[in-house]
């Protein structure tokens, strides 16, 4: 039986959360446990990208979603025997004044519930010329622009209970998970590539000159999320599999009027979300149980 915690329901006025306070983290986890009880336990966390909330439908007992986008729901249940917590929606830094520690807090929360494997997804613009609309890209590595610019979620006084002060991110996207996922893609006969994801600050999409810049440095896809979550996951010791759904092809030519919109992104996610969900299910079926 799955449990649903809806962050969109009317909330009473509450004190500001300090995302760098370990005590606040414990309070948030305790509040969720009050609602979900013993069911607030999971080995695997899933973060759904824009329009990819349907991944939550993999958990039996959850009603189908009809509105694409970000739902703000935390859902506990089982998929392929794994205890899973699924975050249907995420906090984007551009929504929260680039407070990346706040936006990555859900990762620390699910770590409290036992999560040691994170499957993170996003909608992204394709730069790699081989990519087509609707392709899936396993994230092999990332360029975390806000993090490089001093906005890492790990900036500030570090409470060692969160993990190390200095975190190595050389192997953020677990190699064995990527190999397993590529095998699943081959078995399912779907187009899946590996590539480098760039997190920009957004919320504006990139100019053609910016897209060209990222192409030059070897990036394959562009988005406005994920890297802050993965950085915090690595600090917690969580292993990560990341994937991007290519919802649009980023425009490299200022004389070519290709306009990208969030509606297009959501449309692409709704057209391709079922395949992405089957892919995730296939991966979970192959992952050994904790
Ligand atoms: O990364 P997700 O949450 O999939 O969302 C992506 O889609 C939105 C832009 O259309 C941006 O928020 C970008 O990051
Ligand atoms: N930054 C960025 N985010 C996206 N999310 C979906 N498509 C895009 C894109 O082209 N650029």
UniProtKB/TrEMBL annotation:
Superkingdom of this entry's organism? Eukaryota
Cite the annotated pathway.
Purine metabolism; purine nucleoside salvage
Gene3D superfamilies linked to this entry: Nucleoside phosphorylase domain (3.40.50.1580)
Give GO terms for biological process: nucleoside metabolic process
Could you tell me the EC number(s) of this protein?
2.4.2.1
Sorted alphabetically, which keywords does the UniProt record give? Glycosyltransferase, Transferase
For the ligand (a purine D-ribonucleoside), the binding residues are: 206, 248
Query: Which of the seven top EC classes does this enzyme belong to?
Result: transferase
Which amino acid positions bind phosphate, per UniProt? Answer: 50, 70, 90-92, 123, 225
Glycosyltransferase as UniProt keyword: yes
Checking Pfam families in the record gives:
PNP_UDP_1
Q: Which GO terms describe its cellular component?
A: cytoplasm
Catalyzed chemical reaction(s): guanosine + phosphate = alpha-D-ribose 1-phosphate + guanine; 2'-deoxyinosine + phosphate = 2-deoxy-alpha-D-ribose 1-phosphate + hypoxanthine; inosine + phosphate = alpha-D-ribose 1-phosphate + hypoxanthine; 2'-deoxyguanosine + phosphate = 2-deoxy-alpha-D-ribose 1-phosphate + guanine
GO function terms (MF aspect): purine-nucleoside phosphorylase activity
The Nucleoside phosphorylase domain covers 43-285
Q: What does this protein do?
A: The purine nucleoside phosphorylases catalyze the phosphorolytic breakdown of the N-glycosidic bond in the beta-(deoxy)ribonucleoside molecules, with the formation of the corresponding free purine bases and pentose-1-phosphate.
Q: Could you tell me which PANTHER family the record lists for this protein?
A: METHYLTHIOADENOSINE/PURINE NUCLEOSIDE PHOSPHORYLASE (PTHR11904), PURINE NUCLEOSIDE PHOSPHORYLASE-RELATED (PTHR11904:SF9)
Q: Which family does it belong to?
A: Belongs to the PNP/MTAP phosphorylase family.
Q: What is this protein called?
A: Purine nucleoside phosphorylase
Q: What is the lineage of its organism?
A: Eukaryota, Metazoa, Ecdysozoa, Nematoda, Chromadorea
